[in-house]
Structure formats: C-alpha cells, structure tokens
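Retry 2 of 3 after timeout on previous attempt. Resubmitting structure tokens to design endpoint.
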C-alpha cells in the first residue's frame, strides 16, 4: 500500500506542477465567475448574493499569500485538488478494494476532466466536493471497521462544505436512508446531534441574508425554477452529454456499466461498497429523471462522482479486469484533451502562432482569454485610474473590469437592461460614490455575436447612457482577440462625463 500511496503522490505532484505552469504561462485568464469571487474576496463578509462565503475566504487566503494575481486566486484550488484525489484513494481503500485499484481510483479523480478543471479554476465545487468526500470517508471507514459512523465527524464535514455549497446537506438523506440496514444500532439522538452541528455552516449566510432581504434564498429558488422565477423545460440529452464530458466519454460508459453491476449484486456486497454505490446510483438516477422535466446544470450532480469512481474501480479492475485497458485509455484521452484545450489559447496570444488560430467560436476557454489587453486599451482610450471609474451593465463584465482594469479598482454595475440582481446590486452604486465624475463604460462580446451586434449595441448604449450622464461619447471599438484577420473578441468603450443621481429601475428578478 505504501508503494501505491507514494506512486499516487508522485503523479499528483507532477500534475500540480503542470497546472501551475498552465496558470502562469498558458494565457487562460480568470473566467467571469472567478473574477466575481475575487471581488467578493476584496470585501470579506459573512455571505454573498449567490453563494456562501467559503470561496471568497479561500481566494482571500490565496491572494494574501501570493498576490492579487491569477495564480493567487487559483493557488488554494491546486492544493485542494491534491487532497481530493488522495481522499478518493483512501475512500477506495476503506471500501476494501486492492491498493492497486485504489491507486487508479485516485488517478481517475485527478486526471478526468472534472478533476483537472477542479484543480485549475477557483470555483465553489472544489471545496464542496472535498468536504462531501470527507463525509463519505467518515461513513465508509466506520463500516469497514464494523462500527457505527460518527455523526459528529459527518456533521463537521458537512458544516465545512456548507460554506461552499448548500447541497452538501443532501448527504444526510443518504445517511438516514441507509441507517435501518447498514447501522441500525446508531441512535437517532446521535444523528440529530450531528445534523445540528452541520447546520452551524449555515449561520454565516443566514446572518448576512438577515440584513439583505434573504436574497440568496430568493436566488436559489429562482435558479431551481429555471432562472428568474420561470420554470424551464427538461434537458436530459444535454445533461447526459455534460456528465460524459465531466468524466470523459469512455469512463462514463464504463461507469454506467459498473453501476448496473452494482445494482444487480448490491445484496452481496460489503456495507462500505454498498454505501458508495447507493450514493452514486441514487444521485445520478434522480438527476436523470428530473432532467427529463426541468433543466439541470451539469455541475449540479458532481457529488455523485467521488463514490462513483470507487464503483468504477471495483468493477473495472476487480470484477472485469479485461476492461482495465479501456479505463486507462479513457484517462489518457482525457489528459490529452485537457492538454489540447490548455494550449489552444497560445494560438491567439502568441503573435507567431496567431495566423494558425481557428475554431474560436467553439473554444472552451473563449471567456477566459484576451483580458490582459484591456489595460492597454483603456489607458490608450484616456482612462485615468486615479480619478475615473469603470462600469458595465453585466456583472460578469464588471467583475472582469475590476480584476483586469488598471489598478484593480472595483468597477460598478449599472443595470440598463433590467437584468437579475447580483452582488454588485448590494454594494454602493456609482450614483452614490461617483456623482459628477467621469466613467468609462465597457461592453465586451465574442464572435459570432460580435459581428452581428456591435453596431446596434453602439447605438443602443449611446442613447441609454445619456439618461445617466450629461455627455456620452464612443471612444473606440477595441479588438482584443484576432483569428487570422477576423476580430473574434472586442470591446466598445464609452467615455461618460458627469454622472447624475438618476438610477435605473430596481430589478425584481433574482
């Protein structure tokens, strides 16, 4: 077992060095969500509009250790991803799998697209998934040692996970459902104590929402209804495709087969293996059924995969060893695809490679590249960070402007189009802090919408912005990314003089 542990650590350290190199040199900038979470970390609080505070606290720690840079924002994620793979490895060991099988379970977690992206982007799923795996480990280790699970240990993991994503509380459902036949002697009072401990993780968000009209709960309810309070139709095909992408197509097909084998043989399996299979089988089955009637986002069910990888390893390496090569090929192809997508931005950012760039419209990271050009574009457009301010009518663009704008000054959100509320809606507005001053409005778009919309958008914003400023002038149409001779990402920049105290109508959407 020590040999396999050392071997896994070796591969995880190699992966970490590779990811750090990609973060530093590949040109994949922060996505809008990452930039938004960074703005939260600049104003630490007990809660935020759409998420609990854990991701902001995480980024605050990373940026205070390594600076207000892309590496600082993502640094803690790299560490958490190592712990995630190690947790899956130990989860496999405690289910009674061979050390070699557990080693491959850890590699599955580390090198599948879900694991690779989770080691790169500063998103809430990373901390949430690690805490979910920790809770699974608490149950499985107890079953392996033929004792009752410790509800206090489970509660502590869930409490920590609630600081990232509230669906962590779904874990209690699996614990309660499995109690009658896996650990019937576990006292209900002990479970209630663990549940109470876990609810402490909600207190920061509840405290913040108490003084903010319970907006996080309103937002979550609207999201579950399909967005802005309107129910959306099903997306079962899209949902299944997204799961195949998250795990890689070959591994996903093998997993479906493994879960079927688990279902057929569930009554003869060890309690630990039964619990892992039950969590994964029930989670995925319910999500697939729900996606037939309502839109389900691909990352909503990532909680199924730490335990699912255990079932995959059990079936592939111990029940049907002839499939092991397919699993290894699946990992290799997953890694090759990640490498390909990681280096594609170079074709747009390195002058010697730019003529060979192609396929920008289908590029997975098109929302992450080109931002470093904003600083030069804004400065050449006359923006003075010492006295002017930046703003936009999309919270995603506001977040990007805050991180990549000169001086990293917090930009402002002006809700020109009645969009749903966001965190910027609950921070000081430009009318409160910038009345009478000069602001630069920025609109950014990618191809193919860019060439269709930019002239109409220029006219629209010229007219709309004049309601809130005494004088508005279009400074420039600024290309940010080229594909050959074609402009595939660009910004419209307006100089707006003398901000008035007039505000757009407040949005009622969440």
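Retry 2 succeeded. Sequence:
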């Amino acid at each position: 077992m020590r040999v396999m542990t050392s071997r896994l650590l070796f591969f995880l350290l190699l992966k970490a060095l590779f990811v750090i190199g990609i973060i530093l040199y590949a040109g994949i900038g922060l996505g809008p969500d990452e930039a938004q979470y960074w703005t939260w970390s600049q104003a630490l609080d007990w809660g935020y509009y759409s998420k609990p505070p854990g991701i902001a606290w995480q980024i605050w720690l990373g940026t205070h250790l390594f600076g207000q840079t892309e590496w600082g924002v993502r640094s803690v994620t790299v560490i958490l991803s190592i712990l995630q793979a190690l947790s899956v490895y130990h989860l496999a060991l405690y289910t009674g799998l061979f050390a070699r099988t557990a080693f491959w379970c850890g590699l599955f977690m580390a090198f599948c697209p879900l694991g690779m992206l989770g080691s790169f982007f500063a998103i809430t799923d990373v901390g949430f998934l690690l805490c979910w795996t920790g809770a699974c480990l608490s149950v499985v280790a107890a079953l392996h040692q033929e004792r009752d699970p410790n509800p206090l240990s489970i509660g502590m993991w869930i409490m920590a996970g609630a600081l990232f994503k509230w669906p962590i509380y779904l874990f209690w459902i699996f614990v309660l459902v499995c109690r009658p036949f896996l650990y019937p002697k576990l006292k209900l009072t002990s479970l209630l104590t663990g549940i109470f401990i876990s609810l402490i993780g909600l207190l920061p968000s509840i405290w913040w929402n108490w003084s903010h009209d319970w907006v996080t709960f309103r937002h979550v309810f609207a999201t579950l209804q399909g967005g802005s309070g309107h129910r959306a139709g099903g997306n079962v095909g899209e949902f299944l495709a997204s799961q195949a992408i998250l795990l890689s197509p070959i591994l996903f097909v093998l997993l479906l087969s493994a879960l079927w084998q688990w279902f057929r043989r569930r009554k003869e399996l060890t309690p630990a293996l039964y619990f892992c299979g039950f969590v994964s089988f029930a989670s995925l089955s319910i999500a697939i059924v729900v996606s037939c009637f309502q839109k389900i986002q691909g990352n909503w069910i990532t909680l199924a995969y730490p335990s699912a990888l255990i079932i995959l390893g059990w079936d592939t390496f111990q029940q049907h060893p002839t499939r092991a090569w397919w699993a290894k090929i699946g990992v290799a192809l997953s890694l090759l695809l990640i490498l390909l997508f990681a280096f594609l931005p170079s074709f747009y950012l390195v002058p010697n490679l730019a003529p060979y760039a192609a396929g920008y419209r289908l590029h997975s990271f098109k929302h992450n590249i080109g931002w470093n050009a904003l600083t030069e574009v804004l400065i050449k457009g006359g923006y003075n960070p010492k006295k002017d301010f930046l703003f936009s009518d999309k919270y995603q663009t506001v977040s990007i402007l805050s991180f990549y704008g000169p001086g990293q000054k917090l930009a402002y959100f002006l809700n020109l189009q009645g969009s749903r509320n966001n965190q910027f809606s609950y921070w000081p507005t430009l009318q409160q802090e910038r009345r009478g001053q000069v602001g630069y409005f920025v609109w950014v778009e990618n191809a193919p919408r860019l060439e269709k919309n930019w002239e109409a958008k220029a006219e629209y914003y010229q007219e709309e912005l004049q309601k809130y400023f005494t004088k508005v002038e279009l400074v420039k149409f600024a290309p940010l990314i080229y594909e050959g001779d074609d402009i595939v990402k660009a910004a419209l920049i307006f100089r707006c003089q003398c901000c008035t105290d007039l505000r757009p109508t407040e949005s009622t959407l969440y």
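Attempt log closed. The chain has 22 helices and five strands.
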